[in-house]
Write a structure and sequence with these properties.
5-stranded mixed beta sheet; 45% helix; alpha/beta; 535 residues; single chain; elongated; D-Maltodextrin-Binding Protein, domain 2; 6-stranded mixed beta sheet; disordered N terminus
């Protein structure tokens, strides 16, 4: 919402003040709010769009109690509309682009793609922090864009889900108000166990909300869900029968997905006649396993030694809620992220036609009609989505941007390395001129007694080569260590070969000899009688 003059609507600052007083942090862990960047709706009217909660009683409380009481207290007509979770992104994008509709959107997870259509929520966070204290790290990470320095949403997860504790036990071990921090929890729990024998822990039952409470506590203290190898999360990619052939991705084992393998969602499209599967935490999933494809990285993390071993096996995964997936194929690994990252575990699935989150089109830009093709795609896009701007970028430019800093570092390092070598050569040249001038008489005497030009050249040059070799011996282990540390930033990296040190060493040695020889050769070739006469 934009700042408005009094009498024409609720200003952003006024809304912050009344929201802070009215308990803006109400709600469970996870949802976040987006404020479209447009004028307020009608005067004293706040229009909210949020997903239909899986617990209907929550919607009844929010709409009929909380929103109503808040509106009466602040003389505001609060209108709350609900929509299916899968339709929320599309609806929000349309309203944000058109700058019409609802003022406030509540998401289960805030989409950063709408950043240009919403207001910066930094002021909201500042005002709420004054009243409720610092936000948890999860709230910051899920709503902040570090590149633009902008909060594109506001997370109501300002505090973890409340925990339950027994006053009669905690008050007797020095915590009359219960544990406030994780350290309190550890110390108090230990004291209670030692004094009363009661174990203290986090109780979980076979339903969703206690799992959310567990994750709330875990995330609030900077933890994460991961396995023993540190793998966190899995990518999900929408596909159809043409996806892998279009992008040249190889199926190592199994078969491709077809239209018959479209993803079955819960609960609206579960066939009640089919067998229902209950996961280990008691969560209802699709009665028939969904057909999915996985990549090599995920197959390996699941313990399959060969791609063929994974075919027809079933796995439980989470995509909004938990599902059972039957593996139909294993795909050869491809880089989903930068080469700095290792191969990411990926699940490919065939979504229903009404919930595609994006469409993927491959355009051959090697032809002479590339620009014409781009314009044709733009026209088709504008016809289908007249309220959305047609924007595109070239994928190779995107990839190049990932390594721009490294390329710039390479150029800068090369420039300064060249300057260092040039300055060093000037120093060697000056030192050679000084030494040969000091040893002019010695060189003349040696030539008179029969010394050859080559022997004199060797005599003078070796004194300069010695410090170069010592510097090389010192530099090699240091360079090897720094190079090894730098390459550790990349999951895909070259091996450090001895030639990487031998060839530069020989090149530096040749440059040093060339710089010194210009002076030593001149001194060794001079007429000894002339040099002795001068001395």
């Amino acid at each position: 919402m934009k700042e408005e003059k009094k009498g024409k609507g609720v200003s952003r600052r006024d809304f912050i003040k009344i929201a802070g007083a009215g308990g803006i942090t109400a709600g469970a862990l996870g949802p976040a709010f987006l404020f479209p960047e447009r004028a307020a709706a009608q005067q004293k009217t706040l229009k909210i769009l949020q997903w239909s909660h899986f617990v209907p009683a929550y919607d009844a409380w929010f709409d009929g109690t909380f929103a109503k009481q808040w509106g009466e207290k602040h003389n505001t007509n609060v209108v709350v509309d609900h929509i299916n979770l899968v339709d929320l992104n599309t609806r929000a994008a349309s309203e944000a682009q058109a700058k019409k509709g609802h003022d406030l959107f509540m998401f289960l997870s805030p989409p950063a793609a709408y950043e240009n259509q919403v207001i910066d929520m930094s002021h909201v966070y500042q005002e709420v922090e004054k009243k409720h204290g610092k936000k948890i790290d999860l709230a910051h990470k899920s709503t902040y864009n570090p590149k633009t320095k902008k909060y594109y949403a506001f997370s109501d997860s300002f505090a973890p889900d409340p925990g339950n504790w027994r006053l009669d036990l905690w008050s007797q071990v020095g915590f009359p108000n219960g544990p406030d921090t994780y350290d309190d929890l550890r110390k108090g729990a230990k004291a209670i166990k030692e004094k009363f024998g009661n174990p203290c822990g986090i109780g979980l039952s076979q339903e969703l909300d206690t799992s959310m409470a567990m994750r709330a506590l875990l995330w609030s203290f900077g933890g994460a869900e991961q396995d023993e190898n540190g793998n966190v999360g899995t990518f999900f990619i929408n596909t159809d029968e043409n996806f892998f052939a279009t992008y040249g991705m190889k199926i190592l084992a199994g078969r491709n997905l077809t239209e018959k393998d479209q993803f079955i969602y819960v609960p609206r499209d579960v066939d009640p006649k089919r067998e229902r599967i209950i996961t280990d935490d008691g969560y209802l999933v699709s009665g028939a396993p969904n057909r999915i494809m996985i990549n090599e990285a995920l197959a390996e993390s699941l313990g399959f030694k060969k791609p063929e071993d994974a075919i027809n096996e079933k796995v439980v995964f989470e995509l909004g809620r938990k599902f059972v997936g039957e593996i139909t194929a294993v795909i050869k690994n491809h880089n989903q992220l930068s080469l700095r990252e290792k191969y990411q575990p990926i699940i490919y699935y065939y979504p229903m036609y009404d919930i595609w989150s994006y469409f993927s089109i491959k355009v051959d830009l090697r032809s002479s009609k590339a620009l014409e093709t781009i314009n044709q795609v733009g026209k088709l896009y504008s016809d289908a989505f007249p309220t959305s701007a047609y924007e595109y970028f070239f994928l190779d430019d995107h990839f190049a941007q990932q390594y721009k800093a490294d390329q710039q570092f390479g150029k800068t390092f090369g420039l300064f390395a060249g300057l260092a070598i040039f300055v060093s050569c000037l120093g060697l040249l000056g030192l050679a001129a000084f030494v040969t001038n000091q040893r002019t008489k010695e060189i003349g005497v040696r030539k008179i007694v029969g010394a050859s030009v080559s022997s004199i050249l060797l005599l003078l040059t070796k004194d300069f080569i010695r410090p170069v070799l010592i510097a090389f011996v010192i530099a090699v282990p240091l360079t090897w260590y720094l190079l090894k540390k730098w390459l550790e930033n990349y999951a895909f990296r070259i091996a450090i070969s001895p030639l990487l040190f031998i060839l530069p060493g020989l090149l530096i040695l040749a440059i040093a000899i060339l710089a010194v020889s210009t002076q030593t050769l001149k001194a060794a070739s001079a007429n000894p009688s002339k040099s002795l006469r001068t001395e």
